[in-house]
Amino acid sequence: MNSIISDSYAVHFNEKAFQSLNTHLAKMKYSIIFILVDENTHELCLPQFMAEINGDYQFEIIEIESGEVNKNIETCVGVWEALSELGADRKSILINLGGGVLTDLGGFVASTFKRGIDFINVPTTLLSMVDASVGGKTGIDLGALKNQIGVINQPVMVLVVPDFLDTLENRQVISGFAEMLKHGLIQDAPYWHALKEVKSLEDMKKHILTSIQIKNKVVLQDPTEQNIRKILNYGHTLGHAIESYFLESDAKEMLLHGEAIALGMILEGYLSHKLLGLTAESLSDIKNTFLSRYDKVEFSDNDIESILKLMKYDKKNSHGKVNFVLLKTIGSPQVDLQIPIELFFEAFAYYKV
Predict the structure, then answer these.
(1) Measured by CB atoms within 10 angstroms of the end CB, which terminus of the chain is less buried, N or C?
(2) CA gap 176, 178 in Å, rounded
(3) Pair 117, 164 in one domain
(4) Residue 10, strand partner residues
């Protein structure tokens, strides 16, 4: 695969990824190379990663606990303290080896430690490869509220090694696939239809490059999310609220990000049908495609009301208005739309049928 050039860095793949990493480390002569992992990537990915590094460097490994529940300021404080205790200075670098939680948090930690040190992201999940790999968004959750604290800051490079996906359980893979399907819905109808035919992880790997190219194209046009970059949030306004609600509820089993976003895309597909004229055929296509891969979730009226209250914290909101991304057609989105409250209940009713 050819490298993808983003605004100020490149996304490298497979052998080119490690070649680029080794060239960069030899050139920069960092004081200490820190590698941030969780318990899973420490065991399953770190040995393979270290085996590909050439040269004699000082390494320090920092481990955090995996999971969205740990994407918070307390974990950041622990990493900042570890960096300080292990002698990190402004000429150190942090390599984030893990999924989206780890690369989001690690990027934020690096961007704020001593007012910013270099960092490299090595995404190891499908979700982080096709979503967190491009765009420079770093950050953490505020309680159960998703991505409330953070900065946009670019890594030195991103290294995508699809073989790391072989370490994942199937649920994690399918979660990441939701973001790939989203790329088709917001930018490329033929890509959407091609992804519907994917049957295996090996099939998914063949499409990773296309998804990253789609996201990179959007981000380059709007690095700070003032206009077109908002389309990447299709399914996320309701999806994030659902994810937050299930995260904070003791009575609910936590949903993975992609599972919640898949649900959000069905709901926002219904809103698109009602408000922008998305055809009934396209709406059925969206619903059937996601329900064929993602388990249906049960909602009570109280659940729905609580979810709708959480939407006021969505980062796309402005001037007290909850802003949505909806589809005119598959591949053609529209941003900054407000929704009549009764349509939300209609959307959930449509999902339940």
Answers:
(1) C
(2) 5
(3) yes
(4) 5, 157
pLDDT at 156 over 90: yes
120 and 206 together in one domain = no
Torsions phi, psi for 107 (to 5 deg): -65, -40
The token pair that represents 51 in the structure block: 């085996």
Distances from the Cα of 329 to the Cαs of 109, 235, 279, 350, in angstroms? 39, 15, 7, 19
pTM: 0.92
Strand ranges in 104-242 using DSSP code E only, listed in sequence order = 118-123, 140-142, 145-149, 157-160
CB count, 10 Å around CB of 63? 16
- Structural domain total, the chain: 2
Do the Cβ atoms of 140 and 147 come closer than 8 Å? Answer: yes
Domain that holds residue 184: 171-352
The count of other CB atoms within 10 Å of the CB of residue 179 is 25
State whether residue 68 is helix, strand or coil.
helix
Find the mean pLDDT for residues 100-120.
97
Half-sphere exposure for 21 (CA within 13 Å, toward CB): 29
SS3 139: coil
Which of 111, 141, 168 is the last residue in one of the domains? 168
The neighbouring-strand residues paired with 93 are: 33, 118
- What is the signed CA dihedral for 292, 146, 144, 271, rounded to 10 degrees? -50
pLDDT at 315: 60
Claim to verify: residue 154 and residue 256 sit in the same structural domain: no
Encoded tokens for 90:
């402004």
Average per-residue pLDDT for the chain? 95
